[in-house]
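Example record

One chain of 408 residues, shown exactly as stored in the release files.
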Amino acid sequence: MKGRLAQLVERFLDVKDVRGSSPLPPTKYLKSPLVRNIKKKFSNYSPSVEVLISKENLLHNLNTYKKSYPKRLLAPVLKSNAYGHGLVEVARILEKEDLAFFAIDSLYEAMILRDKGIKSPLLVIGYTSPNNIDNCRLSNISFTITSLDQLRLISELITNEKTIHLKIDTGMHRQGILPSQINEATRIIKSNKLLHLDGICSHLADADSIDQTFTRLQICTWEKAVNDLKNSFSDIKYFHILATSGASQLENITSNVLRLGIGLYGIDLGTEESANLKPVLQMQSIISSIKIIPAGDYVGYGITYKATHETKIATIPVGYFEGVNRKLSNRGLIKVRNILCPIIGRVSMNITTVDVSNVPDIILGDKAIVISNNENDPNSIINIAKMCNVIPYEILAQIPQHLRRTVI
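Predicted structure tokens for this chain:
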């Protein structure tokens, strides 16, 4: 007789029902009594690396923006796994709030949210192929039109009603139809009763710059496009060009929606409201080994660190696979027992070594704060990004999806 775990492995590897040879859909395996039993057995599993999400801080940040922009609707941006915070976890915290919609990058993200029972309005702001738009049967979802060619193909393909937001290229030249293409886009939409234009959007390339010259040019292009489309469509509901960056500098602009990106997650962008934001994410791990090495010994790949004196070192089971930037080798800091410990040697794929000589009574299993949600800590998102010479977005987006997100 095969063990039950072996049977499960056989099911996934051979895609065969252990009772016979007929294939079973993967979804049935995941819902089978066997899998449920295994999940139950491992329900007390404690991961060695965990991402903590502060519900209180997330809602605090949302309310900060509500107070700062009372005349605008808010649209949280949940793309890219909610900037590394956890797509479903963040959506569940926010779904009962009064919001315009959730902005996501792809139809795949929309499918995940609907599968998890999230019913909030969704706007896919990334490119979606015409075939996927036609085949989509999810409710309460809108798609962003990113080019005239895409709009033409969608108009030819769709067999049921679709709600769209038309993106205008106001000068950033990534996505959107050109101002010169607005008349043709209007003609296509009006000629197809299955297309409903629910919103107009664009994106500012340099909104947080001190020099607002280019931003003013984009706004002029935007306002003209808005007026042209308003004359053709009387029931457009949403106008959105403003995002977290630069929103406070651009009050007098046609944009009844503010897309909340990185500011929602408490990252300080130097704006007035940023001073009141609270970081939402903290990553923590554990101490997995402790030893004392003599002066002259080396640590890690490439022997880039040499102990100058007898040193107590500890390993932490987290590395660049878990989102610890390799540039933190020999310069980053991890907090253990509220003491900042320098990373020594290179950050490995799944292991980082720290000098814990100054941590009294350290023991196996002690908590290690890899990313702090205290913005003043040297290992906060902002300070890690500065140390690595990258933007905070990059640090957050590289936190892998497989790590458990726990809402606290």
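Notes: The chain has 13 helices and 20 strands.
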